[in-house]
Design brief:
By secondary structure, the protein is an alpha+beta fold. The chain contains 10 helices and 19 strands. Strands 1, 2, 3, 4, 7 and 8 form a 6-stranded antiparallel β-sheet that branches. Strands 10, 11, 12, 13, 16 and 17 form a 6-stranded mixed β-sheet that branches. The protein is elongated. About 5% of the residues have low confidence.
């Protein structure tokens, strides 16, 4: 391919199907030529106007609900950031040439998000297949003798198809309501099990928590920040329980609480993980769970750390040098039958350094070596190291997570030292 820039505006207008762009306020931002042609509207009649001012429900049809169904779909896309495919809709359209006259239309819409630089939905792609002629064609074409019979059968098929589509949409709506109720319960549970963000005194830290795409907004990844006894010290940990949803979140809550308690009485992070490993043996669902914990001593500028099968923390020194804390790595929590102490190591830092702990959802990608993800993380942390922890955490997530969200859960903790 040559270096000629692609005119995406021209491509949009030339798309063979009906496609329109809507703002989050459901105002038309643009519509391609096919959309205008089939809808029977001019561009100036649509762009800048609200969707339902251009296409209201048919007031002569008491059971009309196309507007309500379409708005619900678009609102779901805005709320979830996920594409929504609608069931077949009857959505009558007022004639542009004959105001007050309504044309019976059948549409098959799909709505999808367009993301902005900050990951929010900035536009909605509204793609429509008009199937009115297909519905009408079910009336068939035959001889004069059987025209009435075929036409009658076609109308029965049309009615049945439309009825089944309505039933499917109503069933989907009930499922979405049930899912929403379950999600509310899950979120309340998640918030109760994770520690408050402001638990490390005056130290500057940022935490981020991103469930996998399609999850209930709950997952098995966790983080913990605790004040340690003796001196100006804190413990920072992250962990990962296999799986998603409420079951994984329940196991996560047990392990996080156990490590939080162990860290407050243990002599070091290795001993804390050793206690947690013994506990994991009796927790159903903790199989292959991983964790890493660091004890930060701000008076002596040291970090003592230990890992149970978890990706290494990243220490970015003030001069930009990156150090992976990987000299005290051990198997996952439940993978050691013997009670031997887990290893721990220590490193030093200068003022202005940054420590990042994370789960594998931030760095792992299918068909990609893990070192590629680690290098990508190290590069992002080093380039943004002078930003405050909150801005740094946002920048890392923006650069490393896919635009539509990751397929695995992600937790990230950033501490300015």
């Amino acid at each position: 391919m040559n270096d000629t820039a692609i005119d995406y505006a021209a491509v949009f207008q030339a798309l063979p199907g009906m496609v329109a762009l809507l703002t989050p306020g459901l105002v038309y931002a643009d519509a391609n030529e096919e959309f205008l042609r089939v809808a029977g509207r001019k561009r100036e009649q649509m762009v800048g106007r609200h969707l339902f001012d251009v296409f209201p429900d048919n007031p002569e049809e008491p059971g009309a609900n196309g507007m309500r169904n379409l708005e619900a779909s678009l609102r779901r896309v805005l709320a979830t950031g996920e594409r929504d495919t609608m069931a077949l809709q009857r959505y009558d359209v007022e004639s542009a040439d004959r105001p007050g006259e309504w044309e019976e239309r059948y549409w098959s819409p799909v709505n999808a998000p367009v993301y902005g630089p900050d990951g929010s939905v900035v536009l909605l792609v509204h793609r429509v297949e008009e199937v009115t002629e297909l519905i009408r064609a079910r009336g068939g074409r035959g001889t004069a003798a059987d025209d009435g019979r075929v036409g009658s059968r076609g109308r029965v098929l049309e009615a049945e198809l439309y009825t089944r589509a309505r039933e499917l949409q109503e069933l989907n709506e009930r499922l979405r309501l049930a899912h929403a109720r379950e999600r509310e319960v899950a979120l309340a549970l998640q918030e109760a099990m994770l520690p408050p963000r402001m638990q490390v005194g005056h130290h500057r830290a940022a935490v981020r928590y991103r469930p996998a795409v399609g999850a209930l907004n709950v997952c098995g990844d966790w983080y913990d920040l605790v004040d340690l006894v003796g001196g100006n010290r804190i413990g920072v940990s992250v962990g990962d329980v296999v799986g998603h949803g409420l079951e994984a979140a329940g196991v996560m809550g047990q392990l996080r609480s156990a490590l939080s308690a162990a860290s407050r009485v243990a002599q070091g992070p290795g001993e804390a993980l050793n206690v947690l490993g013994r506990y994991a043996h009796v927790v159903d669902g903790a199989e292959s769970a991983t964790a890493v914990t660091t004890f930060i001593d701000f008076d002596h500028h040291t970090i003592t750390y230990s890992s149970a099968g978890h990706p290494p923390p990243v220490l970015v020194h003030a001069d930009g040098r990156v150090e992976f804390l990987d000299r005290a790595t051990d198997p996952p929590l439940d993978a050691r039958p013997d009670p031997a102490p887990r290893p721990e190591a220590r490193t030093t830092y200068d003022d202005g350094a940054t420590l990042a702990l994370y789960t594998d959802g931030l760095i792992e990608r299918r068909r990609e070596d893990i070192d590629t993800g680690l290098n990508r993380l190290a590069d992002a942390l080093a380039r943004h190291r002078k930003a405050d922890p909150e801005s740094l955490a946002d920048a890392v997530l923006w650069e490393l997570l896919p635009p539509g969200g990751a397929t695995d859960d992600t937790a990230l903790v950033v501490v300015r030292l």
